[in-house]
Design brief:
By secondary structure, the chain is of the alpha+beta class. It has three helices and four strands; from the N terminus they run βαββααβ. The longest helix is centred in the N-terminal third of the chain and has 16 residues. The radius of gyration is 14 Å and the shape is globular.
Amino acid sequence: MAVTLQVMYPVTKGSTFDDAYYANTHMAMVSEYMGAHISDTVVTKGIAGGAGTPPAFHAVATILFADQAAMDAAMAVSGPALADIPNFTNASPQMLIGQTYS
């Protein structure tokens, strides 16, 4: 069964997020180090939390893996990408690991 890792960067008082760095540098780093194990990646930039409501998250990255073994292999080599987080945000990322179904 496919497994997803969602990394969510919450908007909090005083939080910052460099969209350009995230898109152009950090996600390239994720691909470089973890890409061999990733089936697909989608990043959603927060623009609203509903009509007239600000977004709760700066961004949410959804990374799809074929199975748990692929995710485990990707996480084993994720150190440089994890160490890069302070270069684009001061928010504390939240993670959700899940199984996908349709």
